[in-house]
Inverse folding.
């Protein structure tokens, strides 16, 4: 049985390069010709895949919110109602996102307000559902912690984990595994500290 992952589609390649370029130079600092050149097609050729840059931005930001929520729901199902297993899995899943999709974090921080209102509302709705998965997991792990405090702790941990675009040059930080382990310990420590004060 083959374990190879499928090669990214042209659409996925375009989105990856668009995210990288938007994060580096801002949404308005990048033209469709530059995105096309990054994937080896003409700028006008992009219009076979997307209606324009706005459509790319929407797919990137809505898409990552959908992916985080579906991944979180899968971890809930796979945890067999074990709070320890679930919280560890949620943390690890978000760390994977934070380390592997750093341009999307930057893009979300800078460009969310550029989305059409309907897309922005969808992103916010998906994010709220994702937060609530975490709040339930934290409350199950730390029953003495008030729900409002658990929610505040979840948002604080997201801030910690989503700080990865600011960790410095790749050669100035530990390797991926060491960084993931550090982030996991910091997240668990934050939740434990919140529970200690309850």
């Amino acid at each position: 049985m083959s374990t190879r992952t499928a090669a990214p589609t042209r659409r996925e390649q375009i989105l990856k390069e668009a995210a990288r370029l938007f994060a580096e130079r801002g949404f308005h600092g990048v033209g469709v010709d530059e995105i096309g050149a990054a994937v080896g097609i003409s700028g006008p050729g992009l219009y076979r895949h997307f209606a324009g840059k706005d459509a790319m931005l929407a797919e990137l930001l809505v898409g990552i919110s959908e992916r985080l929520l579906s991944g979180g729901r899968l971890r809930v199902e796979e945890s067999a109602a074990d709070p320890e297993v679930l919280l560890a899995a949620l943390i690890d899943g978000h760390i994977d996102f934070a380390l592997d999709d750093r341009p999307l974090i930057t893009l979300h921080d800078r460009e969310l307000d550029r989305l059409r209102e309907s897309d922005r509302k969808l992103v916010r709705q998906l994010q709220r559902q994702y937060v609530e998965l975490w709040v339930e997991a934290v409350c199950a792990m730390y029953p003495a912690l008030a729900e409002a405090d658990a929610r505040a702790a979840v948002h604080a941990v997201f801030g910690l984990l989503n700080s990865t675009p600011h960790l410095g040059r790749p050669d100035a930080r530990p390797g991926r595994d060491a960084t993931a382990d550090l982030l996991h310990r910091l997240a668990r420590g934050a939740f434990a500290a919140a529970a200690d004060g309850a």
Remarks:
- The first helix runs from residue 10 to 25.
- The chain has a mean pLDDT of 92.
